[in-house]
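Notebook entry, structure prediction.
Reason for the run: the old model in the group folder had no record of what sequence produced it. Starting over properly, with the input documented here first.
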Amino acid sequence: MCYNCGCHIPDDDMGHPDNITTTTFQGLAQTLKLGKDSRKNVYDYLESQTTNPEAPKNNEIEEMFLKASKAWGQSIAEAKKQTFNMLKGEI
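New structure, fully documented this time:
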């Protein structure tokens, strides 16, 4: 679940399927028809939300962060920050 907790193990959901893993991004890509690299799309989305908080929200991505934050006991903002930082290092 490294994307929302920062553990740097992208394929480990730490026992909770709502934590953000590589598999989560694959499912998101299928749901949103994003193509293969949904990680880049999520990174771009988070970056746009940071630079322009009034930018339109993507309900599926926001739901992913809501579930992940509840699974790990963190705020949505923390889940987004951890994921953004992890993705920044990958992209």
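Summary: The helical segments are 2-5, 22-32, 38-51, 59-72, 76-90.
The old model has been moved to the deprecated folder.
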